[in-house]
Structures are given as C-alpha cells and as structure tokens.
Amino acid sequence: MASKTYTYERRLQLKHFFDDRGTGQTRRTWLEIQLALPEKTTEGWINDGKVRLSIGEDRDIKGSFLLSVDEAVRLVKSLDMAIEDHEAEKVRLWRE
User: Fold this and answer.
1) Distance (Å, rounded) from C-alpha 71 to C-alpha 53?
2) pLDDT band for position 7 (cuts 50, 70, 90)
3) Are 52 and 31 in contact (CB under 8 A)?
C-alpha cells in the first residue's frame, strides 16, 4: 500500500539570527509551521489534516515533526500555559 502524500502550505516561519561565538559569523536558526488541510475521500470519509513543524539551521533542515491536529492543539495549549507562567513570574519579580 502506498503511503499518502500531503500537500502542505506554509503558515509561519520564525527566524532567529545570532552571532556564533566560535566563528564570529552571524548564523540563522528557524522554525517553520506547515498545514495539510483535511480531505474528503472518494468513499465520503473525512481524513484529518496534518501539521508539520520543521526546525533548521541556515538552509539545512535539522528535524521535522509530523503532528496530528490533536497533538498540535496540545502543543499550543502547553506553549500558552508556559507563556502565562512566564508572564506571571515576571510580574511577581517586578512587584518585589
């Protein structure tokens, strides 16, 4: 059975530039989020889409994660909770 190929569209690319202490050169790391939308099969079923997270340095992909929509939702909620905790701690430190 052939594996299903998805058509992805880029949704977001975050780039981070930094100075490499070892070489003194400016380097770039990046995170790209792509989405494959849900599709209807010829039998009338709806297949879930996928979310792909790619992580790279300069022009090379260093890793890629293929997530279900449920996994992507859990990731977003975890990031949101981490940001809320960070901001609450920052407020607490400013109040000291």
Assistant:
1) 12
2) confident
3) no
Structure tokens at 84: 């809320």
Burial track 35-46 (b if 16+ CB lie within 10 A, e otherwise): bbeeeeeeeeee
> With b meaning 16 or more CB within 10 Å and e meaning fewer, what string describes 4-29?
eeeebeeeeeeeeeeeeeeeeeeeee
CA 18 remoteness from chain centre: 20
What's the pLDDT tens digit per position in 8-62?
887 888 999 988 888 888 999 999 999 999 999 899 999 999 999 999 998 888 8
Return d(Cα 40, Cα 72) in angstroms, integer: 21
What's the predicted TM-score (pTM) here?
0.73
Residues 34 and 49: beta-carbon distance below 8 Å: no
DSSP state of 64: E
The amino acid at residue 67 is: L
pLDDT at 5: 67
